[in-house]
């Protein structure tokens, strides 16, 4: 397993197993309270993992060029599912739909659909990307449509993740940087308006700026997260010995799972988890550079960047350097949809790595920055 493809597969396996371990550790008090069974939330996570592994294998073994033929249909289907989350009889909460006995989050599936669509569209547009009308505006329209639904859910964190990933793909795909900067300049005031439209967003931002003043309200999660991270020390309290998960830290098993990792395994364990995620992203970037064509390169750039950027956002929230966003830690946090999609993105990387196994190292694909 010395190939890049094999190394990525090994890291994915370690992340999956680590995720199951820490989800059980962080969730068993809540599982006991909800069902009387300490394994109940872990069982759901395992189901998400099994479905995700099926998706991983499909994306790994099927020729990735197939996805460029149906990417617009996939994106449209995800958008319809997102809209359905706003229909009370169909939705399971504000962000979920129910599929049989299990809820799932369409915005998570949107990560894969968006990468496939943007990458495929960039390849199809070719030199037209040099025009602002063809190189930026169509993607602004797509983001605008998705953004309206995500803000109504509300899910600002996912919208930020979508927008930054699309911007990165546009840049690496050859869109002139000045066009992206112009768009950013127009987007800043829009972001400010969005921030002030919802009181809870404004309060979260205020709590970020002055955590002590909000430590019992909007800053409570961050305050408890910092206590958990700090109490882990160098080696941690030991697996299963977290105190924060005993209902002191809300969302300890999903958005703030890293805080439990830090508390139970300390600095050493935290760095190991971060290293695994960093290896995956770094090797994903290598896959992009070795891809046999432009489409594969953009798929790999998109999947690697999204996983890396989401990881940074989650870690930044856990240690209090960003306001709370509600984003999971890829592969590790509880959430069947999140785990499923993380594995699918890993499968996309493996598929491109498999196709580029015999490509010349260091040769850049025309039309792709790297």
Automatic annotation (TrEMBL):
Pathway: Cell wall biogenesis; peptidoglycan biosynthesis. Keywords: Cell cycle, Cell division, Cell membrane, Cell shape, Cell wall biogenesis/degradation, Glycosyltransferase, Membrane, Peptidoglycan synthesis, Transferase, Transmembrane, Transmembrane helix. It catalyses: [GlcNAc-(1->4)-Mur2Ac(oyl-L-Ala-gamma-D-Glu-L-Lys-D-Ala-D-Ala)](n)-di-trans,octa-cis-undecaprenyl diphosphate + beta-D-GlcNAc-(1->4)-Mur2Ac(oyl-L-Ala-gamma-D-Glu-L-Lys-D-Ala-D-Ala)-di-trans,octa-cis-undecaprenyl diphosphate = [GlcNAc-(1->4)-Mur2Ac(oyl-L-Ala-gamma-D-Glu-L-Lys-D-Ala-D-Ala)](n+1)-di-trans,octa-cis-undecaprenyl diphosphate + di-trans,octa-cis-undecaprenyl diphosphate + H(+). InterPro entries: Cell_cycle_FtsW-rel_CS (IPR018365), FtsW (IPR013437), FtsW/RodA (IPR001182). GO terms for molecular function: lipid-linked peptidoglycan transporter activity; peptidoglycan glycosyltransferase activity. It is a multi-pass membrane protein. Pfam families: FTSW_RODA_SPOVE (PF01098). GO terms for biological process: cell division; cell wall organization; peptidoglycan biosynthetic process; regulation of cell shape. It is found in: Cell membrane. The keyword Cell division applies. GO terms for cellular component: cell division site; plasma membrane. The chain crosses the membrane at residues 41-60, 72-90, 102-123, 135-152, 158-174, 181-200, 266-285, 297-319, 331-352. Its EC number is 2.4.99.28. It is an enzyme of class 2 (transferase). Belongs to the SEDS family. FtsW subfamily. This is Probable peptidoglycan glycosyltransferase FtsW. The lineage of its organism: Bacteria, Candidatus Bipolaricaulota, Candidatus Bipolaricaulia, Candidatus Bipolaricaulales, Candidatus Bipolaricaulaceae.
């Amino acid at each position: 397993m010395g190939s890049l493809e094999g190394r990525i597969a090994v890291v994915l396996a370690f992340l999956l197993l680590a995720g199951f371990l820490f989800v059980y550790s962080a969730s068993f008090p809540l599982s006991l309270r909800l069902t009387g069974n300490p394994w109940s939330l872990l069982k759901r996570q395992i189901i998400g993992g099994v479905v995700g592994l099926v998706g991983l294998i499909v994306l790994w073994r099927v020729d990735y060029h197939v996805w460029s033929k149906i990417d617009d249909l996939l994106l449209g289907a995800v958008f319809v599912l997102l809209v359905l989350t706003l229909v009370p009889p169909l939705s399971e909460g504000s962000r979920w739909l129910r599929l049989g006995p299990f809820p799932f989050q369409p915005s998570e599936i949107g990560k894969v659909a968006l990468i496939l669509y943007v990458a495929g569209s960039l390849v199809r547009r070719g030199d037209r990307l040099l025009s602002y009308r063809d190189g930026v505006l169509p993607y602004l329209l797509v983001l605008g449509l998705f953004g309206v639904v995500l803000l109504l859910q509300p899910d600002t964190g996912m919208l930020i993740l979508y927008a930054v990933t699309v911007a990165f793909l546009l840049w690496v795909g050859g869109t002139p940087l000045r066009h992206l900067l112009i768009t950013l300049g127009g987007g800043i005031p829009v972001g400010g308006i969005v921030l002030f439209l919802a009181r809870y967003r404004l309060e979260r931002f205020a709590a970020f700026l002055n955590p002590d003043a909000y430590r019992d309200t909007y800053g409570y999660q961050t305050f408890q997260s910092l206590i958990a991270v700090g109490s882990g020390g160098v080696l941690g309290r030991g697996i299963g010995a977290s105190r924060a998960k005993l209902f002191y830290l809300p969302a300890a098993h999903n958005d703030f799972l890293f805080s439990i990792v830090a508390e139970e395994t300390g600095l050493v364990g935290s760095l190991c988890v971060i290293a695994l995620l960093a290896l995956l992203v770094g090797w994903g970037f290598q896959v992009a550079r070795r891809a046999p064509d432009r489409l594969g390169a953009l798929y790999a750039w998109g999947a690697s960047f999204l996983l890396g950027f989401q990881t940074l956002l989650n870690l930044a929230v856990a240690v209090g350097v960003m306001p709370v966003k509600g984003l999971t830690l890829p592969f590790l946090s509880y959430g069947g949809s999140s785990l499923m999609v993380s594995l699918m993105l890993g499968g996309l990387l493996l598929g491109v790595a498999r196709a580029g196994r015999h490509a010349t190292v260091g040769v850049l694909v025309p039309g792709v920055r790297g």
